[in-house]
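Title: Prediction job returns without error message
Component: structure pipeline
Severity: low
Priority: P3
Assignee: unassigned

Description:
Job completed but the reporter wants confirmation the result is attached to the right record. Sequence as submitted:
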Amino acid sequence: MSSLTAAGSTRALPVYTTVLAWLFAAGCVAMAIWVPVFDRANWELAGSISYLAAGVLVAAGWVALGRTSPRLAVALVTLGALVGGLFLVWTIVVPVVALILIVLFARGALRRS
């Protein structure tokens, strides 16, 4: 199984965990942009800010894995995934993906510590 290192770290996450984390972060940032641009009728500032925060937290957690403790990285990814999953709870898929991301990231990050 190949792995990617987080920010030059000796800790490695499986490729599927890294890809899932970046896709989740990119999806949240895309939603933060999409909501005010294309959904003018239901635009909510809090939702857009929350999507952006979720994406930034997940990305920061992945980057923090190589620079700080794995527990901080897991906490950041968990918080970001929960925020992103909470605001997209009506899709059912996003909360499930958020939970999968939390479990995979925690398992991969804490296994190496």
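Comment from assignee: result matches the submitted record. Confidence is low (pLDDT under 50) at residues 6-10.
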